Amino acid sequence: MRIEFPGDLRAPAAARRFVDAPLRDLLDRTTRPTAEDVVLVVSELVTNAVRASADVISLSLRVDEERVEIEISDDAAGWPTPREADWEDPTGRGLAIVDELSDRWHTTELYPGKRITVTWFRNAG
């Protein structure tokens, strides 16, 4: 499944809706990852793309017996860089959330922009 949408303030909610229903049909609260984890990661990454001033954001979702994988692409400048947010900071936790909830993630440079690929292995313990 793949979708593109404008990089405006409605993008995070649109991205959550796009992945939520299919994931709830395919995953349950006892599977790994949970639908809630994937939806949260999608929301964080799309929010980062909006904050980076992306004009267009692409989202793809793949689910099979071995893994769940999402890809978020945008045309914005800049590179996702994890940082440690102070407890008073209102922002800066998105990539830490992605790192904590996923099995692996990486960024690929595009011209323009970048693609972040996030993977969960369904049989990982």
From TrEMBL:
CDD domains: HATPase_RsbW-like
Positions of the Histidine kinase/HSP90-like ATPase domain: 6-120
Superkingdom field: Bacteria
GO molecular function: ATP binding
Keywords for this protein: ATP-binding, Kinase, Nucleotide-binding, Serine/threonine-protein kinase, Transferase
InterPro entries xref list: Anti-sigma-factor_SerPK (IPR050267), HATPase_C_sf (IPR036890), HATPase_dom (IPR003594)
UniProt protein name: ATP-binding protein
